Amino acid sequence: MAVGSTKFPGEIERFSALDRILHWASAVAFLYCFFSGIGIAYPKFSWLLTVLGGGEFARWLHPWAGVVFSIGAILMFLKWARNMVLTSEDIAFLTRIKAYISGKHEELPEAGKFNGGQKLYAWVVFISAFLFFLSGIAMWFPENFDVGLVRWAVVLHTLTFIVAGAFTVIHIYMGTIGVPGSIWGMIGGKVSSTWAKFHHPKWYKEVRER
Ligand code: HEM
Questions:
Q1: Fold of the CATH domain 15-209
Q2: Mind listing the pLDDT tens digit for each residue in 6-56?
Q3: 26, 80, 171: which to mutate for ligand 1, most atoms within 8 A of CB?
Q4: What is the pLDDT, as a whole number, of residue 9?
Q5: Can you give the residue ranges of every domain in the chain?
Q6: Most C-beta atoms within 10 A of its C-beta, which of 50, 83, 107, 161?
Q7: pTM for the complete prediction?
Q8: 55 within ligand 1 shell (Cβ under 6 A)
Q9: Distance between CA 201 and CA 80 in Å, rounded?
């Protein structure tokens, strides 16, 4: 059986029901914004708007989905920020990310509940939610703002989209194919002990000692 498979006996809780509701509500809202945003910004991809409920509807829903994403991200921040503080070990993990990609976990500091890459992604999500919200408000109600400021808001919105979008593509890959077994923690709340011991050994030991 592959290391990291969840079909191993002995499961431990990784995410509470509230963690999972917050994650999936924010994820669905983010992905709606992501695809409708591409459809709105690039005429070549306007067919995405048809798939997402029609041009007028998708343009109306996009900012509201952004509000849902921002609120979800604030709540995730309140719930998870304590676990996401970057330590010197996380920085060492990030500088040796090549070893992680080649599966040489023994060359890396032992990961706690989240590894350095996951923590970095969490901060990208928290900060991007803030920047999307700020710039989005100016773009939603342009008549209330100076024209120059609205133009800067469009630039900020686009740059945030590029950074958060690129990180999210990597995140979805890692959460599904890249790290087999991860997804079960975010669906049913539990992961196998084997998975935890392999991917998050420090966290596994902490949980066992509780
Ligand atoms: C289909 C899309 C997605 C899948 C399959 C997915 C999957 C996952 C999984 C499996 C985890 C837990 C990883 C672990 O236990 O170590 C996780 C964590 C997380 N997800 Fe997602 N996710 C998706 C979309 C998103 C989106 C769009 C956001 C942003 C709003 C997001 C934000 C986070 C954050 C901040 C964490 C905690 C840090 C981390 O583990 O990277 N996810 N996700």
A1: Fumarate Reductase Cytochrome B subunit (1.20.950)
A2: 444 599 999 999 999 999 999 999 999 999 999 999 999 999 999 999 999
A3: 171
A4: 57
A5: 15-209
A6: 161
A7: 0.93
A8: no
A9: 19
